[in-house]
Amino acid sequence: MKYKKLTGVILKKQNYREADQIITVWTKQAGKLRFLARGVRLTKSKLVYSLQDLSLAEMEITGSKHLPTLINAKTLKAFGLLRQDLVKIGIGLYAAELMLKMTGDEHPNAPAFSLLLDFLEQLDTHFENPDIYLSLDQFSLGLMSVLGFKAPQQVKTHRQIKDFIESILEREIKSESFLTTNYSAYAQGFGGSAEGLSEGGQLLTMN
Q: Residue 8 belongs to a domain with what CATH number?
């Protein structure tokens, strides 16, 4: 792979060897791809601050097409408000898991990138009510649509959406357990209960 300069959202970081990480990003230019960040786990590494989960970064990579190497990175947006809320972080990671599992490597999809970025922008606001769970369902349906999966008309509730996606993936969405566990405490602050949301904002079972 020749030198490339890409803009993307950090989806996943996996420790590799003693001091490296394999980073998975969803980029505007190339879709989902992985690269090697050498020495990023060392305390003296400057790259670590530019590779935060769910951040938007500009990255320069080069080397092998199988696993190119990161040579420089710069944070474009860290989504600071999102990071201050544990529930919003969980919802953001749920969206990241969908991007990881529902898309193939190096298949650019501008609408999918824009959908993810817009969703993170929405989470990075001061709005604090259970409607963020509804926003997650809208993101999930939107992602399925831009990827060419049309959900049946009766798929409306969170559980139905989750079950439909899992039927496509043929595996579980692991972030669901975090979502269900944390909704209870989150909803209590709004007079709700440990349940999810339907399209009309009505409470329904999350799992």
A: 2.40.50.140
Task: Tell which of 38, 56, 77 closes a domain.
Answer: 77
Residues in contact with 126: Cβ distance below 8 Å, sequence separation at least 6, in sequence order: 81
Share of the chain above pLDDT 70, in %: 85
Tell me the C-alpha to C-alpha distance, in Å, between residue 92 and each of 2, 9, 17, 22, 61: 32, 11, 27, 20, 25
Query: Which pLDDT tens digit goes with each residue over 120-163?
Result: 999 998 766 567 888 999 999 999 999 999 888 888 888 899 99
Looking at the structure, do residues 47 and 22 belong to the same domain, yes or no? yes
Say if residues 101 and 144 touch (Cβ distance below 8 Å). no
Give residue 110's domain range.
80-204
Any idea what DSSP says for residue 7? E
Q: Is the pLDDT of residue 103 over 50?
A: yes
Q: What one-character-per-residue DSSP string does 48-80 give?
A: GGG--TT-EEEEEEES-SSS-EEEEEEEEE--H
The whole-model pTM stands at 0.85
Tell which of 15, 46, 77 closes a domain. 77
